[in-house]
Specification:
Keywords: Hydrolase, Signal. Belongs to the sulfatase family. This is Sulfatase N-terminal domain-containing protein. The protein has 492 residues and is of the alpha/beta class. The protein has 12 helices and 18 strands. Strand 17 and strand 18 form a beta hairpin. The longest helix is centred in the middle third of the chain and has 28 residues.
């Protein structure tokens, strides 16, 4: 599919009313056939993160029910192998490299973020079509006011701005309480996933008479690993980005499965609320993940199934994610689709469903032929880049730059990427062609930091946040005992 970028023709003067104005006049539901849209984006959920996708010891009855009565998307990829760029792809329908945001955003760099004027978001677009819009959970697209959800066209926001927070204390990666309720920073007790579940059903209660777009950007099962009854891992006087390396296998998987189950409970709540208001047949639900599971999850529980790799790599385990679509009465139940799809395809898909028009050619592809009519999608090359790493897929062939010499795999014969064909003379022509195509794509697409990277050459990202954690933690360290995890001073 040919890609080009032209600025979206959406007025940058769109009024973005705050929560207090949620009762403004909207089209009556009885006269509006446009579907409600709910996107649920799990965080670091690997391909085998749901029981319907082969997860062992994972209990997800509500999501499994949607998969059984909707369509499973078995060849769905995240736009990136880490958090922020996948969200950029979802919100813009573009390769994140076009925006320069292919690396993790840091909360302490307020000048970094997705610009709603340069790259108008899906939420802005749907709002212009009369949709009520809400984002619940992880934002991770900019902490400055001009990059926050309100500026991006969201009527409501409950959640956090940073990449992850403690599920109980709400402390983010800078040891600050990072919790927002209706766009305002506010203290709120409770387990993060439970709070998000309730916020979504409350939004449906308020807005069910208008078409609505809900973006449930889950915190789970991203670190820090905590089930609903686990104590805080970050406090006012102790911080660690992650401590799961200390967990034995059984403890890690107990926490992981409880985090996923809590997320699944929320799906049950949402579906019950849709039925209560008679909206199930007028609501499209998409569930997917922002990237594959982390390396420790692979070691402890094969959270990516048999796939090679994990988050932050471009093997299948890093970018292939569990996905499904459900729309009662519109999507035929029990379907399985193997077409190549990617997160940034959702933007043009929703445009097609809502009758919206934009003056641009997006990188994503409209999925409605496959979802609604079981028609095959057109073949296309697909690209991924993050820092110095790059991947390309052409048909069943996949090129990967993890080092300066790229690897080549034939996914039809070798879906687990065990045999590198880079030196196989039978594949020399396709190998060279894909190397050239990748270089051309990057030269035409990437700006900013993505364009500056040298492929295959690792270079540490210079974080603007440098803290003395030893001093902050006053000598305390996290260690695991048979009685459970503790924060203890040396020698205690």
């Amino acid at each position: 599919m040919k890609s080009c970028f032209v600025s979206l023709a959406i007025s940058t003067a769109l009024a973005v009313p705050m929560f207090a104005h949620a009762a403004q006049s909207q089209p009556a539901r009885s006269d509006d056939a446009r579907p409600n849209i709910i996107v649920i984006l799990a965080d670091d959920l690997g391909y085998a993160g749901l029981s319907s996708f082969g997860g062992e010891g994972i209990h997800t009855p509500h999501l499994d029910n949607l998969a059984e009565n909707g369509i499973k998307l078995t060849n769905f990829y995240a736009t990136s192998t880490v958090c922020t760029p996948t969200r950029v792809g979802l919100m813009t329908g573009l390769y994140p490299q076009r925006t320069g945001l292919d690396h993790l955003y840091h909360y302490c760099a307020p000048d970094e973020g997705l610009s709603p004027t340069e790259y108008p978001s899906l939420s802005q677009h749907l709002k212009a079509q009369g949709y009520r819009t809400g984002v619940f959970g992880k934002w991770h697209l900019g902490a400055a006011p001009e990059n926050r959800p309100a500026a991006q066209g969201f009527d409501d926001f409950v959640g956090f701005l940073d990449g992850n927070i403690d599920f109980n204390s709400k402390h983010n990666t800078e040891s600050e309480v990072d919790w927002w309720v209706h766009h305002e920073r506010k203290a709120q007790s409770g387990y993060v996933t439970t709070l998000l579940n309730q916020a979504v059903v409350d939004f449906i209660d308020r807005e069910h008479e208008s078409p609505f777009f809900i973006y449930l950007s889950e915190a789970a099962p991203h670190v820090p690993m905590q089930g609903p009854n686990d104590p805080p891992l970050r406090t006012d006087d102790f911080y660690a980005y992650t401590v799961q390396r200390h967990f034995p296998q059984q403890e890690y998987m107990r926490r992981y499965s409880e985090m996923v189950a809590s997320m699944d409970d929320g799906v049950g709540m949402i579906m019950d609320k849709l039925r209560e208001h008679g909206l199930e047949e007028n609501t499209l639900v998409i569930f997917t993940s922002d990237n594959g599971g982390e390396a420790i999850g692979v070691r402890h529980g094969q959270v990516n199934g048999a796939h090679r790799g994990h988050k932050n790599s471009f093997y299948e385990g890093g970018i292939k994610v569990p996905s499904l679509a459900y729309w009662k009465g519109t999507i035929a139940p029990g379907g399985i689709n193997h077409d190549l799809m990617v997160t940034m395809d959702l933007f043009p898909t929703f445009n097609a469903l809502t009758g919206a028009r934009i003056d641009t050619e997006l990188d994503g592809m409209d999925l409605t032929p496959a979802l609604l009519r079981n028609e095959p999608l057109a073949e296309r090359d697909m690209y991924w880049q993050h820092t110095h790493k790059l991947a390309m897929r052409r048909g069943d062939m996949k090129l990967i730059y993890h080092k300066e010499k790229p690897e080549l795999y034939d996914l039809a014969r070798d879906p687990l990427e065990r045999t590198d064909l880079a030196d196989d003379p039978d594949y020399r022509a396709i190998y060279q062609a894909m190397i050239q195509a990748s270089a051309e794509w990057r030269s035409q697409t990437a700006i900013g930091l993505p364009a500056e990277r040298q492929l295959g050459v690792a270079k540490a990202y210079a974080s603007p946040c440098k803290r003395d954690l030893t001093k902050f933690n006053q000598g305390k360290t996290y260690r695991w005992t048979e009685q459970g995890g503790v924060i203890a001073s040396p020698g205690s």
